[in-house]
Amino acid sequence: MRAPRAARDLVRGLVGALLPVQCAGCLAWDHVLCPSCRALARRLPMNADVEGHRGPLPGVFLGDYGGALRRIVLSAKHSVRTDLGEFLDDAGENLGVRACEVLGIGKASERDAARESRPSGRDPRTEVWVVPAPSSWKRRMRGRQVALPIATAVARGIASSARPGTRVAVVDAVRLRLGAGSQSGKAGAQRVVGRMGAMRALAVPRASIRVVAVDDVVTTGATIREMERVLGALDVVAALCRAGASS
User: Sign of the C-alpha dihedral, residues 63, 67, 72, 77?
Assistant: First the structure.
């Protein structure tokens, strides 16, 4: 595994030396990400509902799918030259902190903590699954997954903000069925049809487990609805961006 990775890094270094670099967000020269676009990862996330399989689901997003944020997402998914790992890491952790608030499992105040320390007969522990949206087998083979690294960072953000006793795990629990392809380039109606019955669950959470679904972009919500169908329930959706009114 080390040799191919070293070879890829060498090729990227040579290409970078021969070809100029542009910011993935604003296209400024000589930056993989300029400071302004880099700061988008730490902007205050927005809350917006997502239409789920059984009704609206609470969602947290960095913003709408447009402008610099859209270009960053597309670059993360398709550009071999651009390494946006640090951006995805910071953005995911930021979303995880907000998702923790939405779940209602944030660290308690001193008064609440004192109250919880009294014998109450209930289990104070909470278990959270952070489940990335499934990638196509081609994307997995190429190592170009985006939802999984975001999910890893989301889990870290939740764990850092959650009350004591909370257990957080990234569970890659959903796979696309054979024949189910990428949603890239498809129109809204095609996306909906393309995800109906397209997934299977490798593991199903118990009813007591809180589940956070993670994706890079939420457009029609077809992927989220299918994830909810196979997992049984979702509690929060976290994504870099959502399709806005102007998208």
Answer: positive
Residues forming beta bridges with residue 199, ordered by sequence position: 176
- Model confidence pLDDT, tens digit, residues 108-153: 644 455 555 545 444 457 999 999 999 888 777 776 789 999 999 9
The 10s digit of each residue's pLDDT in 156-174 is 999 999 999 999 999 999 9
The packing angle between helices 188-195 and 222-231, to 10°, is 20
Single-letter amino acid, residue 14: L
Distances (CA, A) of 182 to 46, 88, 207: 27, 20, 30
Separation in Å, CA 167 to CA 109, 127, 130, 211? 19, 5, 11, 12
Assign 63 to helix, strand or coil: strand
Q: How far is CA 211 from the centre of its chain?
A: 13
